[in-house]
Amino acid sequence: MQKRKNWIYIFVLFLTLSILIFFLFKLPIFQPVSSFVQNIFSPVQSLTHNIFLGFGQNKEINDLKKQNLELTRKIVDQGKITSDNKALRDQFSIQYPKTQQLLEARVISSPSFIPGVNLPETLVIDKGEKDQVKKGMAVVYKDNLIGKIQEVSGNASKIILVTNSNFSVISETFQTKAQGVVKGQGGGELILDNVILSQALKQDDLVLTKGEGDLERGIMPSLVIGKILSVNKNPSDLFQVAKVKSLLDFSNLSTVFVVKGL
Amino acid sequence: MKLLLIILLFIALILENSITTIPFTIAILVVSTVIFRDYSIFLLFFIFGIFLDILSFSQIGLSSLFFTFLVFLILIYEKKFEIYNRYFIAFATALSSLTFLLLFQRGNVIIQSLVSMLISLVLFEIFKKLTKKQNTND
Which chain B residues touch A if contact means CB-CB below 8 Å? Predict the structure, then answer.
């Protein structure tokens, strides 16, 4: 009985401490403590993540995927050159997004990822407030949109991936210029929704961002979101929907780039 | 034994925050509470709860609160149930992992709870053998 009474005292003590910590850590003065702990664990997390990525990867497949991304980038660049002011673009060969806007970041963890069971929904990177990373900034790999910054702490940030069910972005297709909203569905799936029936959607057409947000943070236009897999067009519906597949393998990303400003 | 427990907890912390969301910490918590049944478990899991929240960008203190409740629940019922057996370990781990995963809005709760349950059973057998060995040596 005495022992049980002691358990209750200890329980009440730690319960109070937990509640205290819960409220205290909401204050900004405790931010350095979180940053300090994240700083200590960040290299180990990154190492574990990279070691894990190394397992079971086929080099040939990876090379082909890289080539595929490179070719897609070239197609988009080509399209931009022909549709925009050709003379101007011929004079200044531009890299998109501009390198001075990009902040390189290492992926240190993919929290909701279970290999062989599901795909990552979020990623944690080693850049935070100290590197001027802000909530809402776009994150890219080459010219492919990965997601946007959801949470920021001193030295790390959490990215919500395009495939996350809480993600949505205004977009348009590359060839037919159909406009809609790309929504993450979870489990690595994406849809292009809210496309009016009069607009054309084509299988294998690329889906690009339309651009949203303000000057400091936001998603710039013409970033590749993915490729249309199939189109679901029903005359009785208000909108047509297309299944989209991202060209990136989010589980294999080890370096990404935060876009600082539009 | 306690050192082994701390090492295991650090490994679990790193794994849970780099490659997966399987609640290894819960599995270790249930097993260590049943094996050790002392006050230090409260402190240990209170501290690791804070680390877990900081690294997983959750609200700091939430995991500690959950762990404190869980340790207390296991300890308070040790007189009512026979807790030193694999059935209790499996049941307690599966149920608490499920609650933890739902509370923190993680996906694949069933599979992750089952994996966590299996880990706890393996850990329980290891700790049981180690305790027996230690008692024989004493």
Answer: 13-15, 17-22, 39, 42-43, 46, 49-51, 54-57, 59-62, 64-65, 68-69, 71-72, 75-76, 79, 106-108, 111-112
Between chains, do B20 and A114 touch, taking CB under 8 Å as contact?
A: yes
CATH of the domain at A94: 2.40.10.340
At B62-74, the pLDDT tens digits run 899 999 999 988 8
A63 and A191 in a single domain? The answer is no
Listed by start position, the domains of chain B span 2-133
Q: How many CA atoms lie within 13 A of B34 on its CB side?
A: 26
pLDDT at B56 over 90: no
Which residue on chain B is closest to A150 by alpha carbon?
B57
Which pLDDT band holds residue A173 (cuts at 50, 70, 90)? very high
Question: Is B118 buried (19+), middle (13-18) or exposed (0-12) by CB count in 10 A?
Answer: middle
- In the numeric block, the tokens 């943070």 are attached to A217
Q: Which residues of chain B have a CB within 8 Å of the CB of A123?
A: none
Domain region containing A194: 168-245
